[in-house]
Amino acid sequence: MAPVIEQIPGARPCELGEGAFWNAADQSLWWVDIRGKTLFKHDPQSGRLHNWTMSEWITRAIPFGTEGDLLVTLASTFGHLKRQGEGFNFHSLLPLDEPGMRFNDGALDPDGYLWAGTMRVDEDAQSGRWWRFATDGSSRRRLDTPAFTVTNGPAFDAANAKVYLTDSAAQIIYRGNYDAGAGVTGLAPWRQFEAGDGCPDGMIIGPDNLLWVAFWDGACLRAFDETGSIVHQVELPVMRPTSIAFADDAILYATSAQFGLQNDGVQGQTLRIRLRD
Question: Helices marked H in 15-113 — which ranges?
Fold first, then answer.
């Protein structure tokens, strides 16, 4: 069957939707609108949609622990959103302290550390780096990677001890060996894309063990095997998909961006995609 694609009922278009995360513990979807300074949660079973406004750009949010808290990167700092009633209080743990830079994408590695990429706010230079944070803020380590312009990912292939990192502006996906001590070794370009392909953005290893990548200005998701060959391509009604989260092996979600595009009510929507019955 052809994929069935639906918008999340009641969700507004995001200026820069990102950071889709499926929380298996309560079967909920989380995402952020970076430029809109908004955190979202969707409960598919009830249909309820929640949102919270932040004090600055929020770039990543990942539920952790048992108290309803979240690991987050705002533009300028890494910290915790601590649950308080129906809202949150933010506790900064490790500020970025790099003028002109901000956090962007990130993910938890197989050992429970948060990897977070940085980039220039104006996106005009290869100044971005990757950091590995203890979730309690007790340590951070800059990883041994080239400088990036727009940091996206990472995606962890735990079964094969591989990690994928993307420089979206350079249209390159890097692959390296995941190492619990060093973080990453042997990082090298894995796939280089051309102008007509779009820019590789957020990505995840799916239940099928393929690398699923959202392609900004490509209006699609692509799934790659270990050799870099395309196994699946899902065409989307949004030009700038940005991140992917799997609810199970048949249903996934994709965020998108309206930023820089005409407001048609579709661009910037978060999509539910059923791959098969």
Answer: none
Which residues are bridge partners to 155 per DSSP?
164
d(CA 173, CA 226) in angstroms, rounded, equals 12
Q: What pLDDT does 237 receive?
A: 98
- The helix/strand/coil state of 233 is strand
Distances (CA, A) of 134 to 21, 172, 177, 251: 19, 27, 20, 31
Question: Residue 100 in contact with residue 123, Cβ under 8 Å?
Answer: no
> How many helices (DSSP H) and strands (DSSP E) are in the chain?
0, 24
- Tens digits of per-residue pLDDT, 1-21? 789 999 999 999 999 999 999
As given in the structure block, the two tokens for residue 252 are 């996934």
Residue type, 264: D
* Cα 200 from Cα 171, distance rounded (Å): 6
What is the amino acid identity at position 251? I
Q: List pLDDT tens digits, range 209-233.
A: 999 999 999 999 999 999 999 999 9
CA distance 270 to 273: 10
Q: If 0-12 CB within 10 Å is exposed, 13-18 middle and 19+ buried, where does residue 13 land?
A: buried
pTM of the model: 0.97
Instruction: Report which residue type is found at 136.
Output: D
String of b and e for 142-167 (b: at least 16 CB within 10 Å)?
ebebbebbbbbbbbbbeeeebbbbbb
The tens digit of pLDDT for each residue in 189-212 reads: 999 999 899 999 999 999 999 999
